[in-house]
Amino acid sequence: MVTALEPTRILVVEDDATVAEVVGRYLEREGYEVEIVGDGRVALDRATARPPDLMVLDLMLPGLDGFEVFRGLRAMAPVPVIMLTARGDEDERVAGLELGADDYVSKPFSPRELTARVKSVMRRAAEPVPARTGALESGQLTLDLDSHEVRLGGRPVSLTALEFDLLSFLMLHPNRVFRREQLLAQVWGYTFGDTSTVTVHVRRLREKIEAEPSRPVHIKTVWGVGYLFEG
Predict the structure, then answer these.
(1) How far apart are CA 66 and CA 165, in angstroms?
(2) What is each CA distance from 219 to 175, 180, 215, in whole angstroms?
(3) Sign of CA pseudo-dihedral 32, 34, 40, 44
(4) Distances (CA, A) of 182 to 24, 146, 168, 187
(5) Tens digits of per-residue pLDDT, 158-191?
(6) CA separation (Å) from 224 to 67, 86, 158?
(7) Which terminus of the chain, N or C, has fewer Cβ atoms within 10 Å?
(8) Could you tell me whether strands 81-86 and 135-138 are parallel, antiparallel, or unpaired per DSSP bridges?
(9) Is the pTM of this model over 0.85?
């Protein structure tokens, strides 16, 4: 007897009832099973009792804030998380990405964009296999596609999953300029939405792999065009 696969479960943690309802409706249309919670402490309790396949997490919450919920969740299980942040608040984005969030969406956002990001994160979680194997090197920078390890001058560099994907894509295509829209399509897996996530990830990568992030030697900006990895 063939048993039907259970739908992907998404826990939406958002205290704005209108936003939560719209998000839930769009995700349910895509076939996801959605639970909505408006309190951070309740959300962590629910996730602990039954871990979701993905969490959409607002940062401004009653009970516990989004960062506390994220830390508690990741201490328990490696659940993918998309954070909802205030538009223009780059400190929130960077803090979320540094903690290990899989992606973020800035408010106000298109439910269609959020749905695309959910699909992209779930796809990466299900298929974390690089297109190539082996090691890539540039100067003192080494990236191992098999072990997902990055070293700089022999010292390990801690990258989030998306930072690793972005760096490996650029290193696999050295000396080629990519627009932010192209990187969004190739690395994130969708072709529309807020491209500032690319800018934030590039900035974070530079802070981790460049001796002088303001004068990068690896990931360079081609003004008016995009970014390239100089190999």
Answers:
(1) 25
(2) 10, 13, 10
(3) negative
(4) 29, 25, 15, 8
(5) 887 788 889 999 999 999 999 999 998 888 877 6
(6) 35, 26, 30
(7) N
(8) unpaired
(9) no
Tokens standing for residue 87: 């538009």
Preceding omega of 174 cis (within 30 degrees of 0): no
Q: Are 87 and 93 in contact (CB under 8 A)?
A: no
Structure tokens at 23: 């998000």
Tell me the CA distances in angstroms from 170 to 143, 214, 222, one per residue in order.
11, 19, 14
Residues 79-118 have pLDDT tens digits of: 899 998 876 666 777 777 777 788 888 888 888 888 888 9
For residue 139, CA distances in Å to 91, 135, 210 come to 31, 13, 11
Give CA angle at 120 (132, 113), nearest 5°: 145
Q: What average pLDDT does range 52-74 have in this prediction?
A: 92
Per-residue 3-state assignment (H helix, E strand, C coil) for the chain:
CCCCCCCCEEEEECCCHHHHHHHHHHHHHCCCEEEEECCHHHHHHHHHHCCCCEEEEECCCCCCCHHHHHHHHHHHCCCCEEEEEECCCHHHHHHHHHHCCCEEEEECCCHHHHHHHHHHHHHHHHCCCCCCCCEEEECCEEEECCCCEEEECCEEECCCHHHHHHHHHHHHCCCCCECHHHHHHHHHCCCCCCCHHHHHHHHHHHHHHCCCCCCCCCEEEECCCEEEECC
